[in-house]
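[recover] target loaded
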């Protein structure tokens, strides 16, 4: 998680190219762990994709940001649907990033993907999540 945190700090400092490098590095490491069968790292992979999406968006790479954010949603969805309370915060953040990224890229949301997630988020935390 420290590379992801570093990516966010660098982005906050307007060191966007460095932020993208660290976010890419984190996503790559978690990807390798999950592909090696270490599914316990899947939520961390989804979180790292969410950070990467933010870094891409900051650099104006809207299409890549949308695709990466969508991948984060798809990656965490099975965990969230199985244990919604445990993954509410992370999924809420990822879903919010996805919506904002789609808006910035003037792209429609994938409602088939997003709807069940939003409905469940609203069920377990009514009014907690604000959708753009």
């Amino acid at each position: 998680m420290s590379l992801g945190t570093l990516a966010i700090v660098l982005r906050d400092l307007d060191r966007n190219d460095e932020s993208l490098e660290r976010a890419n590095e984190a996503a790559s490491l978690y990807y390798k762990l999950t592909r090696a069968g270490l599914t316990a790292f899947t939520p961390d992979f989804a979180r790292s994709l969410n950070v990467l999406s933010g870094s891409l968006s900051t650099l104006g790479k809207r299409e890549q940001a949308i695709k990466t954010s969508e991948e984060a949603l798809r990656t965490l969805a099975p965990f969230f649907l199985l244990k919604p309370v445990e993954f509410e915060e992370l999924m809420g953040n990822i879903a919010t990033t996805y919506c904002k990224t789609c808006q910035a890229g003037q792209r429609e949301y994938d409602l088939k993907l997003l709807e069940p997630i939003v409905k469940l988020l609203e069920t377990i935390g009514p009014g907690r999540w604000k959708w753009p």
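[recover] notes: The chain has a mean pLDDT of 94.
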